[in-house]
Design goal:
Layout: H1 20-25, H2 31-47, H3 65-87, H4 99-104, H5 113-133, H6 136-139, E1 142-145, E2 148-151, H7 152-174
Helix pairs in contact: 2-5, 2-7, 3-5, 3-7
Length: about 180
């Protein structure tokens, strides 16, 4: 029987090159604890942002703060859906997703800021329940997503790193204080 070690960073072969930066951005330690802690930190920083500032984009053609939050939610849903499928032993290859298409159709600009923040918090709570539901052997399972192998363990680190990446972008280019 496998032993569950949530501090075990995924091996390089467990995810596609595209995700290497996300995995590397996650601090050492228990990845589920990181998801919980950093999710709270991101939500608190965003909640402190005045609603009138959420329509800001740092350059022409770039996403607004609202778009970034909606994107983080959409991507987390996609990544955790992959983890659910593979963690439950479903080997069906899963397609990629077009983040630009998703963003254009997320209607972030028409939603109340508090609604987007509630979605972010609620989604992270669901993510935590999912990852906590996995037994040690589930974390080791993998499948094909976007044409490349990915493990359940790597997907947890990708979710955490993706959030941290976008939080850094919000800090550096949008002036968000975290």
């Amino acid at each position: 029987m496998a032993i569950l070690d949530l501090t075990l960073r995924p091996e390089r072969a467990e995810y596609a090159d595209f995700y290497a930066g996300y995995v590397a951005a996650v601090p050492d330690g228990d990845v589920v604890a990181t998801l919980e802690r950093e999710g709270r930190r991101t939500a608190a920083a965003l909640a402190a942002l005045p609603a009138e500032r959420t329509g800001f984009a740092y350059a022409e053609g770039k996403w607004t703060v609202r778009d970034v939050v909606a994107h983080v939610c959409d991507a987390e849903r996609v990544f955790t859906y992959r983890a659910l499928r593979f963690g439950r032993s479903d080997p069906t290859p899963l397609p990629s997703f077009d983040q630009e298409l998703f963003s254009r159709n997320a209607h972030a600009d028409r939603r109340a800021w508090t609604d987007l923040l509630d979605e972010l918090r609620t989604l992270r709570a669901a993510t935590l329940y999912l990852f906590r539901s996995f037994a040690a052997e589930d974390w080791e399972r993998s499948g094909i997503a976007s044409g490349a192998p990915v493990s359940v363990r790597a997907l947890a680190w990708i979710v955490a790193g993706h959030e941290l990446h976008h939080r850094r972008v919000l800090e550096e280019r949008y002036g968000l204080k975290v």
